[in-house]
Amino acid sequence: METIESQTIKRIIAKIAETMREQKDYLSRLDAAIGDGDHGVSMVRGFNEVELRLNKLEDNRIGPILKNVGITLTSTIGGATGPLFGSIFLKAGQASGEKEKINLEDLAQMFEASLNGVVSLGKAQVGEKTLVDALSPAVESLKKSVKQKKSLLTALEDAVLESKKGAESTRDIPAGKGRATYLGERAVGHIDPGAMSIYFILKSFYDVVKT
Q: Could you report the per-residue pLDDT of 23-33, keeping only the tens digit for each?
């Protein structure tokens, strides 16, 4: 598979929702160490609503599908998390436009747009213990794969691995942004739940595409 069609995008979104339900308690435990402890619950609430709305959406253009996801997450997840994760899908949707199928180059551009949106909104950079630590290396991996003309599946697999490493790297970083900043060095030793959620999103992409 060298392209991803709109129906596959819908399956990917459903897989993300399933994964968030499976990982709800784990994500909330991560958040309990450095935040409010409700990250898993919030992500499940958001993606459950996404699934409900997506089942009613008849549009087969990838842009409107992803924009619908972004708007739903922004409106149903509380705090700063909703707008940040909503921005990921909104910007990806804007980048994909009217297309009903996308290739690796399109995907790299979409995720880069997502990263730029998150950075613009949250002002975070790599090394500040946020979701950017997991998203940025995945984007760089996808862009590198485009230049190296890798297959879509291999490119996604590489991006997932980089995302996982990025998420796990937040264990060793004091919080530079968000609610956890009040902990300072005490945040060291704990993985950022937002970064881990990014890994789960990318892993869901890969798991669906490889089937």
A: 999 999 999 88
